[in-house]
């Protein structure tokens, strides 16, 4: 079916599922078409680094054997890949460490199991940086992944392989993770959609350094990436919810169903890292377009957090989370840790007050478009170029921490292309547990042609 295959390269996950559900396309045909795209496109990109084609075809055949026209599985027959850090039974989970090159978990992570139960077909895994600790995706096990729009530049990290696979048309759906921008930054660099969920609503089990298990990591989340906002919403509904019985997740409905009813704060660079004009321009253009549609756009408001002090607390909690168990780590006093949790709670309360007067915050996801690859290991020596001036590389953690430290939901939305043809976008931040509001807004932007 050559015509269908061509269409599938740009089809959304929900479109693909609808074709399979109707019988117009078999799950095996969708699977084989995606495999063919990976084999044709992956070589120079190095995005898909673990392939599981035989089991994928078996899963697709099983769907074809029992599919019905009213099959309720929302991702029926959708071929997808997942970030390498997610456990998939029988596939390696290395986090980019050579010492774990042969480590294979024996069970799927809960989100991966839920994606499969919803009808998704897992074709393999996508590349990451070592320890998921960079905004590039290169490691000694699998090598470097490049940006589909410019191979000399990063696709982002740590879900860089995920974003590259989506942007190049290999797959319509991916599953990443984020603690320091790792869903939002790659989405921004590759022109795709991503959602960092409210902390705790999607299980983290099965997304641990190889061979470890324990409590959910503070700040860390796992979430979907896609080529459409509606696919993000559908995937989140599949993967969200507790692992254990005894409680259930009941996210509130989106605040509004029409753009004109939203009240948004456009957050500028005051007290935040400088932002390149190629990034701020499309955000300002969007703000103007929203105002014409009746959206209440606010650029200043009282009661905003002290972003500098918040950032210091975010870094402390982030370093506590990511250095735990490493040989060089300094133990953190339990009272210091609990004080950070108090600061986090106070910040959540502050944002809750702000979200009484607005519905969403629009901000840059990153200060620049995709930057050139760098092999400098010392972050303090790395810089980014913003409007011709060098700024510190690590400064971008402020844009990540805006939503990460208080645990808020944030949806990455692609907006435009730079003069060099590189994608750029923004993040849409909502109040705690209001994931459906940020996602609904993103869907409306796409429906109105206001996104890239």
Tell me the layout of helices and strands.
Layout: H1 2-8, H2 13-22, H3 27-45, E1 48-51, H4 53-66, E2 79-83, H5 110-117, E3 121-126, E4 138-139, E5 143-144, H6 160-167, E6 173-178, H7 184-190, E7 193-196, E8 221-226, H8 229-239, E9 263-266, H9 277-292, E10 296-298, H10 307-323, H11 334-354, E11 360-363, E12 383-386, E13 389-392, H12 397-404, E14 410-417, E15 423-429, H13 435-447
Parallel strand pairs: 2-3, 9-10, 9-11
Antiparallel strand pairs: 1-3, 4-5, 6-8, 7-8, 7-14, 11-15, 12-13, 14-15
Helix pairs in contact: 3-4, 6-7, 8-13, 10-11, 10-12
- How many distinct beta strands? 15
Shape: globular
Biggest sheet character = 8 strands, mixed
Q: CA-to-CA gap between the ends?
A: 29 Å
- Strand residue percentage: 15-25%
Helix share, percent: 25-40%
Largest beta sheet: what is the strand line-up? 6-8-7-14-15-11-9-10
Mean pLDDT: 96
Task: Give keywords.
452 residues; 8-stranded mixed sheet; 13 helices; 3-stranded mixed sheet
Report a brief summary of the structure.
The chain has 452 residues and is α+β, with helices and mostly antiparallel strands. The protein has helices at residues 2-8, 13-22, 27-45, 53-66, 110-117, 160-167, 184-190, 229-239, 277-292, 307-323, 334-354, 397-404, 435-447; strands at 48-51, 79-83, 121-126, 138-139, 143-144, 173-178, 193-196, 221-226, 263-266, 296-298, 360-363, 383-386, 389-392, 410-417, 423-429.
């Amino acid at each position: 079916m050559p015509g269908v295959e061509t269409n599938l390269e740009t089809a959304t996950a929900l479109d693909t599922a609808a074709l399979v559900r109707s019988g117009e396309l078999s799950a095996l045909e969708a699977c084989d078409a995606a495999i063919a795209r990976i084999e044709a496109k992956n070589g120079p990109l190095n995005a898909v680094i673990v392939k599981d084609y035989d089991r994928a075809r078996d899963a697709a055949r099983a769907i074809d054997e029992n599919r019905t026209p009213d099959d309720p599985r929302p991702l029926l027959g959708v071929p997808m890949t997942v970030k390498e850090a997610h456990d998939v039974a029988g596939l390696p989970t290395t986090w980019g460490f050579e010492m774990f090159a042969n480590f294979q978990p024996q069970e799927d992570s809960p989100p991966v199991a839920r994606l499969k139960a919803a009808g998704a077909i897992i074709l393999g895994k996508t590349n990451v940086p070592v320890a998921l600790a960079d905004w590039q995706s290169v490691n000694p096990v699998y090598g470097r992944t490049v940006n589909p729009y410019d191979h000399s530049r990063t696709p982002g990290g740590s879900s860089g392989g995920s974003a590259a696979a989506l942007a190049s048309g290999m797959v319509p759906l991916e599953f990443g993770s984020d603690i320091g921008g790792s869903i939002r930054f790659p989405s921004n660099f590759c022109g795709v959609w991503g959602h960092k969920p409210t902390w705790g609503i999607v299980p983290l089990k099965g997304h641990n350094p190889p061979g470890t298990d324990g409590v959910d990591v503070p700040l860390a989340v796992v979430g979907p990436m896609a080529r459409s906002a509606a696919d993000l919403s559908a995937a989140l509904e599949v993967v969200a919810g507790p692992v254990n019985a005894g409680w259930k997740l009941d996210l509130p409905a989106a605040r509004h169903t029409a753009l004109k009813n939203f009240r948004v704060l456009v957050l500028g660079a005051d007290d935040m890292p400088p932002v390149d004009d190629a990034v701020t321009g499309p955000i300002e253009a969007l703000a103007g377009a929203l105002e014409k549609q009746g959206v209440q756009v606010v650029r200043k408001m009282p009661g905003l957090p002290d972003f500098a002090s918040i950032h210091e607390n975010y870094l402390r909690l982030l370093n506590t989370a990511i250095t735990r168990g490493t040989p060089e780590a300094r133990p953190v006093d339990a009272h210091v840790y609990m004080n950070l949790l108090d600061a986090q709670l106070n910040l959540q309360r502050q944002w809750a007050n702000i979200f009484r007067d607005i519905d969403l915050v629009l901000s840059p996801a990153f200060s620049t478009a995709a930057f050139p690859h760098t092999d400098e290991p010392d972050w303090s020596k790395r810089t980014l170029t913003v409007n011709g001036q060098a700024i510190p590389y690590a400064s971008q953690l402020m844009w990540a921490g805006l939503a990460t430290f208080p645990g808020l939901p944030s949806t990455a939305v692609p907006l435009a292309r730079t003069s060099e043809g590189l994608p750029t976008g923004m993040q849409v931040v909502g109040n705690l547990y209001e994931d459906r509001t940020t996602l609904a807004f993103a869907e409306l932007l796409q429906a109105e042609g206001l996104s890239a």
